[in-house]
Design a protein that fits this description.
This protein has 16 helices and ten strands. By secondary structure, it is an alpha+beta fold. It is elongated.
Amino acid sequence: MSLEIRGKALRVAFRYKGKTVHESIPGGATPENVARWESLDPILQQDIRAGTFDYGHYFPWSKRATENQFGTYLDTWLKIKANEVAASSFKSYTTAAEVHLRPKWGAREVTAIDHIQLQEWIQSDLMPKLHNKTIKGLVSCMGQVFRLYRTRNQDAHDPTEGIYIRQPDAEDPDPFSREEIRQILRTHAEDAGQLNLFEFMVWSGPRISEGIALAWEDVDLGRGEVTFQRALVSRQYKVTKTRRSKRRLKLLRPALEALRRQHALTGQLPPVTVGVVDRDNRTIKHRALTFVFLAPNGEPFRDADQYRNQFWAGHLKTAGVRYRGPNQCRHTFASQLLTSGGVNVEWVAEQMGHTSTAMIWRHYGKWIKDDERDQVERLNALLDV
């Protein structure tokens, strides 16, 4: 580093990233300032050689400091994500950025963040208070920011490489048994529509977000068919989770009967116009829809929590059925079909909106022992022995 004194002004020059850069020093060319920066020279040079140089530490007033800060690239990454992902996903990214990443790393120069620092942060700050899944998500977000930085600085290192956060085994589905289904349905509810929604979901297998977004425009009662083509997530209507999730189903009898009962309650109501976010997460198409199922207040559902909090939890308690979330209706549908022993797994995958039968067995295929058929007798009949 060399010092340049021009009248009362003091400027330093040094090599950084293959270029000579100049920085003006506040306070001018006073003897104290000159002595201070002369003493800083060997420390600054050592940090540059070691790859630990933090521009913002030495020159916090410099435009270069903010240009190379992690927070600057974090902002750019968030702007990109805002146009790439659904509002619910973007909300989780924003929370990760503002609660965890920016307070710790925002003012740091990107190249001054190394692998060991990240490991120490994970082990000391995150592991004691966050679940591994959350930590894995934070590391993934940081990795994406570093990769964005590398598009401009191709020789930069990604310090998240080699960081692996182990995950616990996924919890098994916890479906309802046939007896529990009967107990839930025979327990009185002031709002019959909420029970209709339960019976429809447990015998047709939608996600709860798809069930509460179903409209009569999606239903053909005469043919006994429905089309799942939207979901309600974080108070926003959107197209289904994947293109495969948009599916037309021939309904089982209990699900169809639940819809017929529900039609008497909501089938003649006037439609309401809502905006549905398309798969690009930007285009909003307005649709006039008459929703099949309404919240306990008689209005369209705001989100799945409204069903869970205002009906579901209380009704299960009254029915004497162990609590599980409403998405277990989806697990129950798959498990009941598989337990019956007479259904094609590919057909179940089609009904659920999946392409993989392995996914069905892994996530939804829990054998319900209370409903298991006598397999020995069934095999005897099939083999005629």
